[in-house]
Amino acid sequence: MTFTQLKAYKNEMIVGVAVLLLLISFIYKQGKVSSRLDATTGTSVQELKEVIALKKVWGNKKTTKKVDKLKTLVPPSKLKWSRKSKKLTASFNNLTHPELNRLVTKVMNLAVEIEKLEVKNMGGSYHVEFKCKW
Fold first, then answer.
1. Could you read off the pLDDT of 15-24 as tens digits, one per residue?
2. What is the distance between the alpha carbons of residues 38 and 47, in angstroms, rounded to a whole number?
């Protein structure tokens, strides 16, 4: 083909190149959309597994017994305890360093929703207010 013949098909070549670019961009976009769907599906499945695992932990019947064990960590004279159904309000007064460490470690290892955990240093002793539900 000579240059004059190519000139005659100039519009057709422009349309052909445009269609080719359109096809390439469509294939690229479909690839991105499908990979994004795969990623969101994977994260959705992972989140669903986590929710099921948390329901098993929070639905455990032994959680109440584990929460009640907090009473035995300190002497009864340092403790003010109020448990209603699956809600606990506890106040610990005049705790020493080891008692505070044991208490906080036990609380953090419980499968409960902590609403309030306030620790105040009063000289050489500590005052702890604790509210949770499960």
1. 999 999 999 9
2. 14
